[in-house]
Design a protein that fits this description.
single chain
């Protein structure tokens, strides 16, 4: 794995597009997860209140709630990380770098490992940055700073890491089939934001069929990935309006997401073996 990551690192360390895209992702993640205070101040300046509650007193950065709040927010920009994976894979296919590497003795397995190690690296750095920014924000704004609260519910960070890994593997799968980066990105947007949400919404909420179909939506890839940190309509901030929220990750949600990750790896490996790279 170390050799595979070294191969990938040598390709990317001087590639400006990679660093620009990665930097933009981290910036978007920081803004969306740490801009809450300014957003609440803005709401107050506009005269907004939540059932008579001053928005600026909402403890959105209190430990341990901050981990669920920040990962739920950060998951909204996860689609951006797919751009990095697509560009990386697309370059290999478009410029015949992969074919040349195979000719030079790099196996297809090493290629797969090199991209997988890149995905682990990206997800690991993003999760670490989210943890550190949450730690700083919590130490500044939280009303409780005891260690038992600070390090409680860190499983949400692990869920965020898994979410990025599986979503990136999904992007990797698409990039292996569609060589044009632009088409691959459009397809990911459409599937993630249009196709699957419409299908799962029909299955989950259609009045005459939901009793029979609602149970299968949790097995859809994007649905299961998003469930790790909460769907868009499962805002953890509803707790501050005294509404019930989903405040844990069920064991089967972990398993389904991991299962999709393994399926994506098997699919990529199958496509890789089917492709004649020496021709």
């Amino acid at each position: 794995m170390i050799r595979a990551f070294t191969l990938e690192w040598l390709k990317l360390k001087h590639y400006k597009v990679f660093w620009i895209l990665f930097g933009l992702y981290l910036l978007a993640q920081l803004i969306i997860t740490n801009g809450g205070v300014f957003f609440l101040e803005w709401l107050k300046s506009k005269g907004a209140d939540f059932q008579g509650i001053d928005p600026t007193i909402l403890p959105i950065y209190d430990f341990p709630d901050i981990w669920q709040n920040s990962t739920w927010l950060a998951s909204f920009v996860k689609v951006l990380i797919s751009f990095i994976v697509i560009v990386s894979v697309n370059n290999e296919l478009s410029y015949n770098t992969l074919r040349q590497n195979i000719i030079d003795g790099v196996s297809k397995r090493e290629f797969l490992l090199s991209k997988f190690s890149l995905i682990l690296f990206l997800a690991g750095v993003c999760t670490l940055v989210l943890f550190l920014s949450g730690l700083v924000a919590g130490m500044i704004y939280s009303h409780v700073t005891d260690l038992k609260y600070v390090f409680d519910q860190l499983d949400y960070l692990l869920a965020y890491f898994l979410q990025l890994v599986v979503f990136s593997l999904f992007a990797f799968s698409i990039a292996m089939v569609i060589k044009k980066a632009g088409f691959a990105i459009v397809l990911i947007f459409l599937y993630n934001l249009v196709f699957e949400p419409i299908v799962t919404a029909i299955l989950e909420f259609a009045p005459f069929t939901r009793d029979y179909t609602a149970g299968i939506v949790k097995f859809f890839p994007m649905y299961s990935i998003e469930k790790l940190c909460g769907k868009a309509y499962e805002s953890p901030f509803a707790r501050y309006l005294f509404q019930e929220i989903k405040d844990s990750i069920y064991w089967y949600e972990w398993l389904i997401a991991i299962g999709w990750g393994l399926l994506f790896i098997l699919f990529i490996n199958w496509v890789l073996n089917k492709r004649d790279l020496k021709a």
